[in-house]
Amino acid sequence: MVCIYVVTVLENTSEFVGKPQSYYDELKKSTKPWFEEIKEAGKKMGVGDDDITTDIVTDFSSIPQAIVRYASNKNADLIVIGTKGKTGLKRFLIGSVAESVVRHAHSPVLVVR
Hints:
The protein is an alpha/beta fold. 44% of the residues lie in helices and 19% in strands. The strands form two sheets. The chain has a two-stranded parallel ribbon with strand order 1-2.
C-alpha cells in the first residue's frame, strides 16, 4: 500500500527548480504528521507499518493528473481517495479531485467520504 502526498506547481514556474535539498527535507518534515496519522489509522485496521509506504509527489500538473499518472506508473491495482463531498456552486468553482481521478484513472477507484 502506498500513500502519496501531491505537491503541484504551475507550469513554467521555477518554484521547484534549483531548490536546495533542505527545501525538500522541510517539505518531507511538514508531511510527516499527516503520514503518521495515515499509518496510525492503518494500525487500527490491522495494517502493519511495514505494509504502508509513503511518497511525496512533486508534479507540474494538477493534483488529479498527478495521482492518475503516479498510479499508472506504479501499475496500481486500486486508487483509494477521499472526498469532502462538496456540492453545487462550491464543486463547480473548485472542482472535484476525486471526480477527476475517477474519470481519468486506468485502474479502479474507491472514493471514501
